Request: fold
Amino acid sequence: MTLRVGLTGGIGSGKSTVSALLRERGAVVIDYDQLARDVVAPGQPALAAIAQRFGEGVLLSDGTLNRPALGAIVFTDAAAREDLEAITHPAIRDRATQLEHAAGEDGIVVHDNPLLVEMGAAEHCDVVVVVDVPEQVQIDRLVRDRQMSEDDARARIAAQASRAQRMAVADHVIDNSGTKNELVRTVGGLWDELVRSSAS
Ligand code: ADP
Reply:
């Protein structure tokens, strides 16, 4: 049987780092950031639906999505964001299901999804892993490593599910406020546990 592992965490928490470590160990990782880009590629039905709902102004002249233009609309308008999600989320879910089936009957499949909580996807996972750090650590890493301003980092964090909302669905919490070496060890221990549960 496949063990379905949901992996999430706030922006800058270290989720991608954990995902890469699990992939090194042998997990099949489904990257939802990538899926979110794939479903709005030119020719995809979701892109046509977005252009119909939000107007041709959200497309660039080469027919690709103008992300900043769409982002500016949905960031300030909750109803618009819901409409966008109603278009993209089902397409993302369908692709994730296809990739999971393609991975075969056995093994550990990690759904690496920054919006696991927001998409209500936790209930479809056997195990939910949340990477957690205090908000100030998120901000410091985003400013240090992604050249974000502190205000921008705060705004992005505020737009996501809260730490408490993520904790509420977590089976395992990875505290990533220590060093990267500590993270490597913690993920190694988690992997061993996942392998044991997938075998039982
Ligand atoms: P996320 O995918 O959650 O947004 P990343 O895995 O990209 O976060 O991590 C954000 C940044 O913090 C990256 O530059 C990463 O290298 C760095 N990072 C991750 N874990 C640690 C850690 N324990 N100590 C210091 N920096 C870390």
Q: What stands out?
A: The pocket of adenosine-5'-diphosphate is lined by residues 9, 11-17, 141, 145, 176, 178-180, 183 (CB under 6 Å). The chain has a mean pLDDT of 95. The radius of gyration is 18 Å.
